[in-house]
């Protein structure tokens, strides 16, 4: 599966309220899924790091950057 397609699917799954961004609680679920055993302890710092515009949500582009940096 291509990276962009994977990110699109991740975004669709974790944007539970379908508002076009991943809010903080949705992000916690996403990180829990991606990091599994590393736990939620890293969530706050990761969220702050990738919420580039500090709007307290993760856009699809911000998620793409996070996936590229953390998962690949």
UniProtKB/TrEMBL annotation:
- Where does the EF-hand domain lie? 2-37, 38-72
Q: Which CDD domains match?
A: EFh
Pfam families assigned to the protein according to its UniProt record, in alphabetical order: EF-hand_1, EF-hand_5
> What's the superkingdom here?
Bacteria
SMART domains referenced in this protein's UniProt entry, alphabetically: EFh
InterPro entries listed in its UniProt record:
EF-hand-dom_pair, EF_Hand_1_Ca_BS, EF_hand_dom
Any idea which GO molecular function terms this record carries? calcium ion binding
Protein name per its UniProtKB record: EF-hand domain-containing protein
Q: Which organism is it from?
A: Thalassotalea marina
Q: What is the lineage of its organism?
A: Bacteria, Pseudomonadati, Pseudomonadota, Gammaproteobacteria, Alteromonadales
């Amino acid at each position: 599966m291509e990276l962009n397609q994977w990110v699109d699917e991740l975004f669709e799954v974790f944007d539970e309220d379908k508002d076009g961004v991943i809010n903080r609680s949705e992000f916690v679920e996403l990180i829990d899924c991606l990091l599994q055993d590393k736990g939620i302890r890293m969530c706050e710092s990761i969220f702050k790091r990738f919420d580039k515009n500090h709007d307290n949500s993760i856009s699809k582009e911000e998620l793409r950057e996070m996936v590229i940096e953390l998962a690949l």
